[in-house]
Design brief:
This protein is of the alpha+beta class. Helices cover 75% and strands 12% of the residues. The chain has 3 helices and 3 strands, in the order E-E-H-E-H-H. Strand 1 and strand 2 form a beta hairpin. The chain starts with a strand and ends with a helix. The site of zinc ion has 5 residues, from helix 1.
């Protein structure tokens, strides 16, 4: 079963199973509006779980949230570092480019000097 949203604004959650449809092209085997069953599922679930299990589930959610926060933080640091590297590479390129032009100019003046000398002799 997976969750989908239907309706013109996608406001209505629907549980549906499309496993058979995906595998053999047969029609969906089950489909039910979530709003009508969610309360019953919630009650059945809470009734089946012991208080310890509920505590564990809440803790697990908290753990997942803090892991997500950590990953998000690491990702932001990576982006920042990449931006810094790009900026540094751009600065290095800007510093080197005039030197290359200077090098070429030196080469060219050296060539013309050699030509002048060749003509002179
Ligand atoms: Zn199914």
């Amino acid at each position: 079963m997976s969750l989908h949203y239907s309706g013109p604004k996608g406001d209505y959650p629907v549980y549906l199973c499309a496993a058979d449809q995906g595998e053999s092209g047969s029609p969906r085997c089950q489909q039910v509006r979530a709003l009508s069953v969610d309360r019953h599922i919630e009650q059945a679930l809470l009734g089946a779980l012991t208080p310890e299990q509920i505590t564990m589930a809440v803790e697990a959610v908290g753990e997942l949230e803090s892991q997500t926060k950590l990953l998000d933080q690491q990702w932001r640091l990576k982006c920042e570092r990449a931006r810094y590297d790009v900026e540094r590479a751009r600065r290095q390129y800007d510093e080197v480019e005039p030197l290359c032009t200077f090098g070429k100019n030196v080469e060219l003046s050296h060539l013309s000097e050699m030509r002048t000398r060749a003509r002179g002799s």
